[in-house]
């Protein structure tokens, strides 16, 4: 019997297999299912599934939760330490008296100091705060932030921070995480939310990729189509046409060795013309983070070699 079948059998059992008694008790402290008549321990790894509480808003969900927040790498102590809330309320939700608020303020201040006890933790705390700020400005999902935090922690272990700015390594970690999870952001986009130039971010990223042996595949033009089209407010028909243009170009080996953002921008520009939703080269260039010259060169190349019905 497999583990899944065994668990299903345990959950459905209502009678003791030894004496046939129905007097079964679940001891959640020991994690056991016990027959109270003969003392047989039917299961010794019983899990308390708990009641399925319904919550209609965030306040109800917070008040009915029975566990703390999950562990996260985006906080320097992984979220395992105690944190005194900024709300002046006690565990019952009642307001704390004014005479006790000064003491609570001092406790909160010392709690923050204790959480960061040495220079290494201070460095990590500062870096992860910067990571959260950049990710928020770029609109990145939680899994990208977690991956970027793990990459940064590995870089710290490999002593890659020495001689480099924290901001630059954080930016390179975010760029690597985006590429690993298939949500690419260009170096130009990342450089806009930090003070580090894109050339420096790219240099740190290459060193990081070699040192940490990150398994990252090159980005493809298709990875940028949806996001660029959304920013340009183009229809789904234009997206579909842009994908078709890139597919034909790949089959004829036209885009080999070309920058993926430039190819994606040119494909969108051509697709918008063909579908009657024309956008200027300047508009497309601003969204894609490339120059108008790049779009013009890729556009002419694609139009000529694929015999597309657009003016060259």
UniProtKB/TrEMBL annotation:
One annotated GO molecular function: DNA-binding transcription factor activity
Binding site for Zn(2+): 16, 19, 35, 38
First and last residues of every Sequence repeat: 129-212, 223-304
UniProt superkingdom: Archaea
Gene Ontology biological-process entries: transcription preinitiation complex assembly
InterPro entries in UniProt: Cyclin-like_dom, Cyclin-like_sf, TFIIB, TFIIB_arc, TFIIB_CS, TFIIB_cyclin, Znf_TFIIB
CDD domains in UniProt: CYCLIN_TFIIB_archaea_like_rpt1, CYCLIN_TFIIB_archaea_like_rpt2
Example of a GO cellular component annotation carried by this entry: transcription preinitiation complex
Keywords: Metal-binding, Repeat, Transcription, Transcription regulation, Zinc, Zinc-finger
Known role: Stabilizes TBP binding to an archaeal box-A promoter. Also responsible for recruiting RNA polymerase II to the pre-initiation complex (DNA-TBP-TFIIB).
Family listed: Belongs to the TFIIB family.
Protein's name according to its UniProt entry: Transcription initiation factor IIB
Annotated organism of origin: Aciduliprofundum boonei (strain DSM 19572 / T469)
């Amino acid at each position: 019997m497999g583990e899944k079948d065994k668990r299903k059998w345990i959950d459905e059992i209502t009678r003791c297999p030894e004496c046939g008694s129905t007097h079964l008790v679940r001891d959640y402290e020991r994690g056991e299912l016990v027959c109270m008549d003969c003392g047989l321990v039917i299961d010794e790894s019983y899990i308390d599934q708990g009641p399925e509480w319904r919550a209609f808003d965030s306040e109800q969900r917070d008040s009915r939760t029975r566990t703390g927040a999950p562990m996260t790498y985006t906080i320097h102590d992984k979220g395992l330490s105690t944190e005194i809330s900024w709300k002046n309320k006690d565990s019952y939700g009642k307001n704390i008296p004014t005479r006790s608020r000064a003491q609570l303020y001092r406790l909160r201040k010392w709690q923050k100091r204790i959480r960061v006890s040495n220079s290494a933790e201070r460095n990590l705390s500062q870096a992860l705060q910067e990571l959260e700020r950049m990710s928020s400005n770029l609109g990145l999902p939680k899994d990208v932030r977690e991956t970027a935090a793990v990459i940064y922690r590995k870089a710290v272990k490999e002593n890659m921070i020495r001689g480099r700015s924290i901001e630059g390594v954080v930016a390179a970690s975010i760029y690597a995480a985006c590429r690993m999870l298939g949500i690419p952001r260009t170096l130009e986009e990342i450089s806009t939310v930090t003070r580090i130039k894109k050339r420096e971010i790219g240099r740190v990223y290459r060193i990081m990729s070699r040192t940490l042996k990150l398994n990252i595949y090159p980005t493809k033009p298709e990875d940028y189509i949806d996001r660029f089209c959304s920013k340009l407010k183009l229809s789904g028909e234009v997206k579909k046409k842009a994908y078709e243009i890139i597919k034909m170009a790949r089959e004829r080996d036209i885009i080999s060795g070309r920058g993926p953002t430039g190819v994606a921008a040119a494909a969108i520009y051509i697709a918008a013309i063909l579908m009657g939703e024309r956008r200027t080269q300047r508009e497309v260039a601003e969204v894609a983070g490339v120059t108008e010259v790049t779009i013009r060169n890729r556009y002419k190349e694609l139009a000529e070699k694929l015999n597309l019905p657009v003016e060259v």
